[in-house]
Amino acid sequence: MINFKQKFEIIDYNKFINYFIVLYSFCLPISKAGTTFSAICLILLWFIESNFKVKISLIKSNKFMIVLGTFLLLSFLSIFWSSDTSFAVDYIRKYWHFLIIPIIYTSLDRSYIKHVFSAFLLGMFISEIVSYGIFFEFWTKEGVSPNDPSPFMDHTNYSIYLAFTVFILMHRILFEPLIKWKIMYGVFMLFSMSNMLVNGGRTGQVAFFVTLFIVAFLNIKNKLIAIFGSIIFVFIVFTSAYNTSPVFNDRINYAFHDIEKMIKDKDFTNSFSVRVSLWIIGTEQFLDNFLIGTGIGDEAVDIQKYVKKYNFIYYDNFQDNYIDYHNAYVQYSVQLGIFGLILFILLFLNLLKLKFKSIIYRNLNITFISLYLLLSTVGLSLHIMASMTLFALFSGLFNAISRFETSQ
Q: Which UniProt keywords apply (predicted)?
């Protein structure tokens, strides 16, 4: 008779880990609680599964993992030169989500790869149904306006999720052999693209157009066709959205008005111009703390001299030690100095160096990197949960896929 200990030992933990990776992917667009629950289960199962000799060997041989670990270590060490230790510790605490990356890399079964992508698409489909329902006022959700229907996260991250969804669907349409599935993916892609354009997140819209150009340029042999084809497609989509979507129209008009006031009147008090002022202040802070940065929590110490220097009246009375620079490159430069900036950039360079035999995964990896680099220009892409967990899932996934395809 098998006792409890023997039953415990014969459980296939790897299978459960893969189930929870799929669940994690599904929950990502629609539920913070579900994402956190599945992440905790993954961590527990990964440690219970043990087999650490193999896992550690895989992690040590992966340059991306080494860079990520070094970046996190530097962030931890910066606590020692921060004036607000409790704030710095609380800030770094959120980085536990990155434990998912080595778990996916070492424990994902290759037979689950397509399921992970499909689960993400299903989660996005549900999110988009809710979004359209809010947009057409079929139902309401507290804190979400019909003019900016981003139901489960901020509109900037939601627009990036939508842009990545469009590219996943685009590749499924191109490489799916069955016509009925091509049609379904095509409808879903149009559904996602229009949702992206009625959404208030300009970041995803710009990132989509830029990434589309990059993917076309890399995949079409005739570069002139790639360039002009992309320009024509972007022009058609842009003008259609501008003339049919009031939200898109208003956001574009406001952006041009904001930029015009910033250039002509030196007015840095509107949405985009405020961010530009932050980037200028942050660059000055970085140059003053070039080597090791200010430490986490002291990013705004002494910024009043730059506020006065450039007459940024929006921040005249700002007194806090911490400030969000709305740009990951600036934020990590100020926090961690030149070493932090280099490590942050190396994360994406090592993702870009991954080898793939499949053109689908090569393109999707490039798409993911492009979207994430552009997202990083306007937000803390490694600290806000929606973007942090997206990075954890797909950086782990693409590293795992590359390992499978290069070890054949």
A: Ligase, Membrane, Transmembrane, Transmembrane helix
Residues 6+ apart with CB under 8 A from 337: 286, 289, 290, 291, 292, 293
- Rounded Cα distance, 48 and 344, in Å: 31
Tell me how far CA of residue 140 lies from CA of 126, 136, 144, 150, 226, in angstroms.
Answer: 15, 10, 7, 12, 42
H-type alpha helices, 292-327: 304-310
For residue 30, give the DSSP letter.
T
Per the CB < 8 A criterion, the answer to whether 14 and 107 are in contact is yes
What does the pLDDT look like over 2-55, one tens digit per residue? 555 555 556 789 999 999 999 999 999 999 999 999 999 999 999 999 889 999
Does 75 score more than 50 pLDDT?
yes
Structure tokens at 82: 């921060």
3-state secondary structure at position 81: helix
**Do the Cβ atoms of 375 and 327 come closer than 8 Å?**
no
Is the pTM above the cut of 0.90? yes
Task: Give the residue carrying structure tokens 């041989």.
Answer: 61
3-state secondary structure 342-391: HHHHHHHHHHHCCCCCCHHHHHHHHHHHHHHHHHCCCCCCCCCHHHHHHH
CB 103 within 8 A of CB 68: no
The residue to which tokens 């972007």 are assigned:
234
Short-list 37, 34, 38, 43, CA closest to 20 = 38
